[in-house]
Amino acid sequence: MQPIDFLRRTPPFDRLTEAERERVVQNLKIVRYPPHAPILRQGGETSHYLYLIREGAVRLERDEQVVMVMEEGELFGYPSMLGQTAPILDVVTDEPTLIYQIHESIFRELLQNAHFAEYFLQGLTERLRRTAATPRSSALVWGDLAQPVSTLVQRPPVFAPPDATVSQAAQIMHEHNISSVLVDADPPGIVTVRDLRSRVLAEGRLPDTRLSQVMSAPMRTVAADMPLYQALLVVLREGIHHLPL
């Protein structure tokens, strides 16, 4: 079966338009793994791919204990990718396994399709329910997902004044190696790299455009003590990439 045919019959790719599915196929990375091969490591590098199991099976493990087994048509890697956090479990193949890998940039484009995004919102909720329903799995996983989102903060926020220019904001992002700046306005706002592309370059605005003209305000924020799993649901439900505390 060709990849396009597999996607047509596999949720949530069956919710995409044909053009969106073709874009996935054009950018698809197909990898065959031997048995017992590690794909993601607990505490390791953040996932940059959505992984779709085409053939075979993988085990989700923690401390060499199996939390869950996933098989053909199931997806993994997106909680780490959406939260920009290290994986909380090891993912290891259980047998010879063929994986379709979809890069983060393509995945985030697809999330603009509300029907596609809704699948992940429901799927994450269901995965949490299934995990919590199993005592051993709950002990292994729930603690990580229930930790306050503030524990993931690695640096203080970077602010710019509302009369700063988009050129200055781009320079600040470059210097700090970040993808957004908060705007110290009333109410506070945010400007992201995506905003620079869609609201500045795409609209032909000049480099001296003020941040107050292109920022998103008021910002969508969450409480610092919100559990990580709830923050991930907010990201999915509202289709946003940045979530200030």
Question: Keywords, please?
Answer:
single chain, 245 residues, alpha+beta, Jelly Rolls, CBS domain Like, 2 domains, 4-stranded antiparallel β-sheet, 11 strands
Describe this structure in words.
- With 245 residues, this protein is of the alpha+beta class.
- The chain has two domains: 3-145, Jelly Rolls, CATH 2.60.120.10; 152-221, CBS domain Like (Alpha-Beta Complex).
- Helices cover 39% and strands 21% of the residues.
- Strand 10 and strand 11 form a beta hairpin.
- Helix 1 (3-9) crosses helix 2, helix 5 (114-133) crosses helix 6 (135-145) and helix 5 runs antiparallel to helix 10 (228-238).
- The protein starts with a helix and ends in a 7-residue tail after the last helix.
Task: Look at the structure and give the CATH class of the largest domain.
Answer: Mainly Beta
Shape descriptor reads globular
Unreliable stretches: 135-143
Q: Percent helix among the residues?
A: 25-40%
The count of DSSP E runs of length 2 or more, i.e. the number of strands, is: 11
SSE topology:
Layout: H1 3-9, H2 18-26, E1 29-33, E2 38-40, E3 49-55, E4 57-62, E5 65-71, E6 75-76, H3 78-83, E7 90-93, E8 97-103, H4 104-110, H5 114-133, H6 135-145, E9 159-160, H7 166-176, E10 180-183, E11 189-192, H8 193-201, H9 211-214, H10 228-238
